[in-house]
């Protein structure tokens, strides 16, 4: 089967005009490229988001009688004037043999006034409204035509577009590309037949230009067989690419970390608790991977408080036992410090040198730390993004652990992975406290092995969650006081206001002041992102030591903070937070034996999405169920965080409704990759759907 070449987009005609000026060929090409439309096949696969029915014309009388909907009418301009009350606007009257209607344009150009001169015949499409001066359409879509001009035979596609790129330019570019492109089906006919799929060319042509008799509802909700074919092809390309990336990694060399020796055994024996069955199962999976001579690429996921850190530390112990260094990178200094204190307390009594490396270290401290890392004296290095700086060199890095991996970009993870010795890639263990729904794991994480800690350590008490209107704030303050009098500690989290960090800080500062005044007998602390690391740490230490009863905080405490005595969490303006963040914040309590409560303070009235989020938080503490609902609400783009910066997102398939297709695409990809005779099919399909973007999927 020949590999279809990706032809570059031909330049649109230079004389194309847009409202208010000229859109040159170079401009149009740049705007198309900004949408990712660089080749003919890119254009052909740029599918409509909706359709307009321009296949029928209604009489003006009919349209005015029915009103309230979108109608297309045709008539001759009888009057054209610029009005100035209540503001400058263009008023155009058109008439046919049954009546007349006014077209009103609030924003218009001089060229439109000339274009819509009296005596001009036009077709206008818009919603008919009955105003003070009779029936009218406000800002209708219109075109100048000759009498008897034929109507379109198919629905008119409306494409996702960018600023300054009119639909007619996109339509023309796509129509032209469809004449030039190689339509050869990338899938074997037998596979298409066996899976009851539509053929590629008819499916795509129908989606661009559906005839009026096609079920418009099936087109819009993307359940039409033509959509099924496109979605399957897209999912198959993604599965092929990620699985092939996984195969490529396995062909590369890595140090086989075979020894579970003295350190690992002493470490596990010294722990004041026994690993849960889930922790032990996951540890066994990781240990088996580390013994291989190809690099491990494993995602360790578990709910808040499931005990991922101790599993990661035991993996690091295996690397150290085997004569290699390990590195743990966390996204924030608070989280990195939490790991450092916990793991150093476990490791250093066993003779392991653990080094702390972060951007806030003084130059002298940083120099000493990097020397210890380069000499190999430091066997475990824990820190933030500082680990990936050029000045940090390892003697023999064998294992990289990345916590909250979705908070790092692809480039950052790749830089750390490349710090291994030449010819060997370190094993990589990524951790996430945001559980990933099955369909998401099967698509976006298809290149990874996934381990799940699916049980909490014994002794953890369930957290009761309540949603409370801001009007009952005084009751909440009284509840905080009562908890502190009983010897418990309290977090009070202020909202994340994305528009302004300064505003967020002000909110936290004001809340701290109000609580300090309302609770004069308690020590109320404040921690936020603008504090220096040393100040931040001093406050956290005071809270951990129970010298402070209430801690007002911004979301810097979202992950990693572990104070077992804290049993009450108040989240102010909870409607401003996402589900994943609410779940992470709630996980800061319930870490000890005391009954714990999370109060979600909200501001009425609530929007529909905010209602769904708060209801979910009240109904369940199961991170996987929360993640599933979060995916429903937000979609995969937001859910994945920084991973998307290195990955082509799914444009057509929907993970909630198309899970069955994900299964089929995965099985088909597996079969094609394990059949030597299908190599050309794989290449052809990937070229069509990813067209050179495949390298982004390989981290």
TrEMBL record:
Annotated spans, Disordered: 1-21
Name the record gives this protein: ATP-dependent DNA helicase RecG
Taxonomic source organism: Pseudoduganella aquatica
Keywords recorded for this protein, A-Z: ATP-binding, DNA damage, DNA recombination, DNA repair, DNA-binding, Helicase, Hydrolase, Isomerase, Nucleotide-binding
Organism domain of life: Bacteria
Function summary: Plays a critical role in recombination and DNA repair. Helps process Holliday junction intermediates to mature products by catalyzing branch migration. Has replication fork regression activity, unwinds stalled or blocked replication forks to make a HJ that can be resolved. Has a DNA unwinding activity characteristic of a DNA helicase with 3'-5' polarity.
Pfam family of the protein (one): DEAD
Protein family according to the UniProt entry: Belongs to the helicase family. RecG subfamily.
Gene: recG
EC numbers: 5.6.2.4
Broad EC category: isomerase
Sequence ranges assigned to domain Helicase C-terminal in this UniProt record: 486-632
One Gene Ontology term of the molecular function aspect: hydrolase activity
Taxonomic lineage from the root: Bacteria, Pseudomonadati, Pseudomonadota, Betaproteobacteria, Burkholderiales
